[in-house]
Amino acid sequence: MMEIYSHHNYSLLKASMVVGLQLGYTAVFGSYSSFLFVRTGNLVAPLIAHAFCNHMGLPVLFVPRKGLVSVAFVAGMLSFAWLLFPLTRPDLYNDRTNNCRCWQGFCLWN
């Protein structure tokens, strides 16, 4: 925060907002990466998600002109929500599930 405050000549409020956004985004992405690893049982899924996230950067939430960009954003969010669980099924990534919904085999511990 001090680097943003002193080197970029931001006010203390604006520097705090930038750091808060970065921390919030990092916490959400960390939770998503953990979900991917636990759900798929494969380290490749969070690595690919991290590379894609680094390539794309933060999403643009406010566009001055409404149109194709807004439609694409909404379509992407809906597709993400709809496909999250079907595309992270453990049996797609690990053949040792034995008809268990989780790759760790917690359902077999009974």
Automatic annotation (TrEMBL):
Tagged with keyword Nucleus: no
Stretches assigned to the CAAX prenyl protease 2/Lysostaphin resistance protein A-like domain: 20-56
Bilayer topology annotation: Multi-pass membrane protein
Keywords: Endoplasmic reticulum, Hydrolase, Membrane, Protease, Transmembrane, Transmembrane helix
Top EC class for this record: hydrolase
Compartments, as annotated in UniProt: Endoplasmic reticulum membrane
GO molecular function term, any single one: metalloendopeptidase activity
Top-rank taxon: Eukaryota
Main location as per UniProt: endoplasmic reticulum
Pfam families (alphabetical): Rce1-like (PF02517)
Protein name per Swiss-Prot or TrEMBL: intramembrane prenyl-peptidase Rce1
